[in-house]
Amino acid sequence: IKMASSQEKMNENNNNTNSVDQNNTLENVVPIADTLNPPEIGGKPKSGRHWKQRQLRASGTLTHKPIKSGWSKRQKARLQRQRLRKLEKEILAEKQLQIEQEREERREKRRRKEENELKSSVYQIVTNSSKLKKLSKKQLRNYRKLADINKY
Question: Is the pTM of this model over 0.70?
C-alpha cells in the first residue's frame, strides 16, 4: 500500500477539475436556479394527510419587488382617487341633507297635529282652583293648562 502525499492529492484534484471543464458543454450545464432550489424530498407527511400541500412561511412568499408604474400613471390614479372621494362626499352630503329635511318635516307635522288637536278639542274653563286640589292624580291627567285663557 502506497501512502499518497498531500502534493499528489492536489495534483489529482486539479486533473479531475480540468477533465470536468472539458466535458461541460451547453447540453451538460445545469441551470443555476435548479442548483439553488433543489427539489423537495418527498415522503409521507407526519400528519398522514398526503393531500395537503406544504405551506410556505409568509416571509418566503414574497420573492420579487412589485413593478412600479410610471410617474404619470401614478398621478392619473391619484387624481382619479381624489375625484372619487369628492364624489362620495357630495353623495353623502346630499343624503345627509335629505335625512335632515325628512326629520324636520316630521317635527313640523307633529307640531301641526298637536295644534290641531288643541283647536278641535272640547274644553271647559275651571274657575275655582279648589276643585283641582281635590282631584286625584288619575283625574288630573285628563286636565291640561292652556297658556292663553283670554282667547277662550
Answer: no
DSSP letter at 141 equals T
- pLDDT digits 0-9 by tens, 110-121: 999 988 988 888
- CA 119 to CA 99: how far, in whole Å? 31
**Cell numbers placing 100:** 335632515
- What distances in angstroms separate CA 142 from CA 114, 119, 137, one per listed residue? 16, 16, 9
- CB neighbours of 40 closer than 8 A, spacing ≥ 6? 54
How many angstroms separate the CA atoms of 84 and 92, rounded? 12
Residue 132, SS3 per DSSP: helix
Taking Cα atoms as reference points, which of 88, 84, 139, 147 lies closest to residue 118? 147
Given CA atoms 110, 116, 117, 118 in this order, what sign does their dihedral have?
positive
The DSSP output letter for 147 is S
Closest CA to 152 of 112, 114, 119: 119
Q: Write out pLDDT tens, residues 53-68.
A: 777 777 777 677 778 8
CA dist., res. 15 & res. 2, Å (int): 20
